[in-house]
């Protein structure tokens, strides 16, 4: 395997009963890369993402993290790996009964054993970074969806992750809020954050991704640089998908 792979997936398979959702998936994520995973609804994109941090247990195949096979991980090693892979969900998943600041401080205090003051300072800096320095003491419900998602990104960053996994981070947002979240993600990409992003935002994939992976029926049918994949798709299914979303 390439020595610089952060994540490597070999012959990954996932079944739910008889439903084969992921089939023979191979892929490498290198440090600093932004991978966008695109494809039709139900093609297995979210399941693939959740297999990367073993929120879903693969049925077969291997997920390697920093060259180590996660299958051989103890529970403690798995927990550590998940802490190093931040995840941002479609529906933000903030704790509603905690203020924005408390949401951000929780994991650094509990998991990294940071002092309250240290975690608070870090949280405030991260909130400023996502443009929400003024919102530290409010509750998530008083924020717009776009603001809540930016808080969720800041919360993931509070653990200093090695990689961020995004599961359709803008799909639950009103259209006018999509841009503010994508702008934060683009900034992170420019700062060198390694990211795997399941998305329907083709403009973002085209502009920000180093590689776009096209999934259909549980296979990754095509991987390429965005310009190649969008302008010269090789696989018939990719051509069909792209002509449907871009052609009209
Ligand atoms: N926990 C589960 N139990 C059973 N089947 C599941 C589960 N999670 C996903 N599936 C099935 O796996 C298939 C792929 O789902 P997945 O959510 O990964 O697709 P997707 O490409 O992310 O779709 P979308 O773009 O609509 O979110 C679907 O047929 C879905 O019904």
UniProtKB/TrEMBL annotation:
Keyword ATP-binding: yes
Top-level taxon in the UniProt lineage: Bacteria
Family: Belongs to the ABC transporter superfamily.
Domain ABC transporter residues, every copy: 7-242
Keyword Disulfide bond (UniProt): no
GO CC term, one of those recorded: plasma membrane
InterPro entries with a match to the protein in the record: AAA+_ATPase, ABC_ATPase_HisP-typ, ABC_transporter-like_ATP-bd, ABC_transporter-like_CS, MetN_ABC_transporter-like, P-loop_NTPase
Species whose genome carries this gene: Secundilactobacillus similis DSM 23365 = JCM 2765
Protein name per UniProt: Phosphonate-transporting ATPase
GO molecular function: ABC-type amino acid transporter activity; ATP binding; ATP hydrolysis activity
CDD domains per the UniProt record, alphabetical: ABC_HisP_GlnQ (cd03262)
Protein keywords: Amino-acid transport, ATP-binding, Cell membrane, Membrane, Nucleotide-binding, Transport
Membrane-protein topology: Peripheral membrane protein
Alphabetical list of SUPFAM superfamilies matching this protein: P-loop containing nucleoside triphosphate hydrolases (SSF52540)
Subcellular localization(s) per the UniProt record: Cell membrane
Pfam families for this protein: ABC_tran
């Amino acid at each position: 395997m390439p020595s610089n792979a952060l994540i490597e997936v070999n012959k990954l398979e996932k079944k739910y009963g008889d439903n084969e959702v992921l089939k023979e998936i191979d892929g490498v994520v290198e440090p600093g890369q932004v991978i966008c995973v695109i494809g039709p609804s139900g093609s297995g994109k979210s399941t693939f993402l959740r297999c990367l941090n073993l929120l879903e247990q693969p049925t077969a195949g291997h997920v390697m993290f920093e060259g180590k096979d996660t299958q051989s991980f103890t529970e403690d090693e798995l927990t550590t790996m998940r802490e190093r892979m931040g995840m941002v969900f479609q529906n933000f998943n903030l704790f509603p009964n905690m203020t924005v600041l408390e949401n951000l401080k929780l994991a650094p205090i509990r998991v990294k054993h940071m002092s309250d003051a240290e975690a608070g300072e870090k949280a405030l800096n991260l909130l400023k970074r996502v443009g929400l320095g003024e919102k530290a003491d409010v509750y998530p419900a008083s924020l717009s969806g776009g603001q809540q998602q930016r808080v969720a990104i800041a919360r993931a960053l509070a653990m200093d992750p090695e990689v961020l996994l995004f599961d359709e981070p803008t799909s639950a947002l009103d259209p006018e809020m999509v841009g503010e979240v994508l702008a934060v993600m683009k900034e992170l990409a420019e700062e060198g954050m390694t990211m795997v992003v399941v998305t329907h935002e083709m403009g973002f994939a085209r502009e920000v991704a180093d590689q776009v992976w096209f999934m259909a029926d549980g296979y990754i049918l095509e991987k390429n640089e965005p310009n190649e994949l969008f302008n010269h798709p090789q696989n018939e299914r990719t051509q069909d998908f792209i002509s449907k979303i871009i052609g009209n």
